[in-house]
Every structure is written in structure tokens, then in C-alpha cells.
Amino acid sequence: MNDSDSSRTLDLLDPELTARLLGRQNRHLKQVERLLGIRIGSKGTSLHFRGEDHQVALARRLFEELAGLLREGYPLYAPDFDYAVRILSSDSRLSLKDIFLDTIYVSARKKVITPKSLAQKSYIDAIRAHDVVFGVGPAGTGKTYLAMAMAVASLARKEVSRIILVRPAVEAGEKLGFLPGDIAEKVNPYLRPLYDALYDMVDLNRGQEMVEQGTVEVAPLAFMRGRTLN
């Protein structure tokens, strides 16, 4: 053991909760070992952490806070451990409960949609606080998905009467006018990411019904000029 190494113990006291937290065949425990470069042993409801002092302290706090999420009814999955390590590593003042338990929407398949990072938490807080929000970031960071979740949640609470999906028609060689069908069918390929997010939150039949009834409207950005929205 190096001078900077230390060991700590955490007793979760609840056998069922411990089993859920560690995962099948301790896969979550092994995942955290790889992420933090430490050793974690388990015996009964006790966890024993050994390694570099800062990482050991982080791991103990990680399992303690994740156990708290399980007690609150939050369903933990393998990616949540990656997200949690990043969050706690970025700022020791942050609490996983403040981020993971900020439920945006519960989908038709009972999927709980919550922010998975501090940036996503800031994003949805901004949407709640302001009428217009610009989200800038690389692909795959949840900009479209979370915006759709916030819109569907507002519709479910009757805070809004309809959702208008707007996206620039970014062409890749073809021209919008040459595509077959009406305006909705023409822009459908460009709006696919928005539809994918919508159908992940409501079942397919309900989503199509919302589009047909005009509760969800699709429009390319160029066609929004001059419109008045109430």
C-alpha cells in the first residue's frame, strides 16, 4: 500500500438493497473498480474500499448516495454508475439526488426520464425558467431528447395545448421540393430525431394520433416565418 492509499468501510445494513446496488455477479461493483482504479470487497451488507485516498472517499460516497437513490425508488442501471462517477468527480458539492431524482417525465413504458449530468440538469432548469433556450453541444448529449421530454411533460400537465416540432431542413444533395408527398411527408426525414424522441415517450399509436389531430405539428424552420403562435 502506498502512502497515499487508504481503506474505508460502508455498511448498507439491507441485504436486498445491497444485492440490487452491486448488481448481478457484482457487475456494478466491478464497474466502479474499473472507473476509479481501486479495489472493492463485499461481505454481507458491508463494502470495503482500498486504494488511493481520494478515489476511495469518492467510491464510498458514490455507493452511499446510490443506495439512497434506491431507497427513494429510483431504478439504477449500469450507465447510471458512469454518470454518477462523472458528476461526483466534477464537483464534490453536488448531490446525486438533486440531479437523478429531478423527474422530467415518465414514459408510456414506465421509463423515468431524468437528467444524467450537471449540464443536462442546468439545461432543463433553463427550459423551466425561460421561454426561449438555446442548447449548444455535440451530438448525443440529450439536447433534442430532453427538450422533447419537457414539451411532452408540459402537454400532459395541460400547460400547453400543442407542440410544434421545428427543425432546419438540412439537405444532403436532394431538394425538399422534389421529395414526394405533402409538407409533413417532405420534411419527415429531417424531423426523424424528433419523432424518435416522441415515440420513445408515448406509444406509437398515441404519437401518430397526436400528429393527426394537430396536437403535435411538424414544420421546417423556413415555413415558420410570419406565423403567430398563441
Write up what this structure looks like.
This protein is α+β, with helices and mostly antiparallel strands. The protein folds into two domains: 5-92, 2-Layer Sandwich (Ribosomal Protein S8, Chain: A, domain 1), CATH 3.30.1370.10; 104-223, 3-Layer(aba) Sandwich (Rossmann fold), CATH 3.40.50. It has ten helices and seven strands. It has helices spanning 15-22, 27-36, 53-71, 78-90, 96-100, 118-129, 143-156, 183-187, 192-201, 204-213, and strands at 5-11, 39-43, 46-52, 105-106, 112-113, 163-167, 216-220. The chain has a three-stranded antiparallel β-sheet, with helices on one face. Strands 4-5 form a two-stranded antiparallel ribbon. A two-stranded parallel sheet has the order 6-7. Helix 1 packs across helix 3.
Indicate the CATH architecture of the largest domain: 3-Layer(aba) Sandwich
What is the share of helical residues?
40-55%
Work out the strand percent.
Answer: 5-15%
Strand order of the largest sheet: 1-3-2
CATH class of the largest domain: Alpha Beta
Mean pLDDT: 88
Radius of gyration: 22 Å
| Number of structural domains | 2
- Count the E strands: 7
CATH topology of the largest domain: Rossmann fold
Unreliable spans: none
Helix and strand pattern: EHHEEHHHEEHHEHHHE
Task: State the secondary-structure class.
Answer: alpha+beta
The end-to-end span amounts to 66 Å
CATH superfamily of the largest domain: P-loop containing nucleotide triphosphate hydrolases
The DSSP helix count reads 10
| Largest sheet features | 3 strands, antiparallel
Global outline: elongated
